[in-house]
Design brief:
mainly alpha, about 80 residues, two-stranded antiparallel ribbon, DUF2277, DUF2277 domain-containing protein
Length: about 80
């Protein structure tokens, strides 16, 4: 796992993850998987779409998790 991707669920994150936190983690994941810090112009669309899709999947995951002993994340 990329060391700069942080755990975004309680209690690792004291407050609820923001959209910015989620997008930053998605960007780091796509950078790690693709091997590109910034894609070439001809890859920009697919790179950005991957970041968007991973951010959406991450938000759904966090919204659906039940954290025992730390409460449940609420929208």
């Amino acid at each position: 796992m990329c060391r700069s991707i942080k755990t975004l669920r309680p209690p690792a994150l004291p407050e609820e993850a923001t959209e910015e936190d989620i997008r930053a983690a998605a960007l780091q994941f796509v950078r790690k998987v693709s091997g590109f810090r910034a894609p070439a112009a001809h890859n920009r669309e697919v790179f950005d779409r991957a970041v968007d899709e991973i951010a959406e999947a991450t938000a759904r995951l966090l919204d659906g998790l039940e954290i025992h002993g730390g409460g449940v994340r609420t929208p």
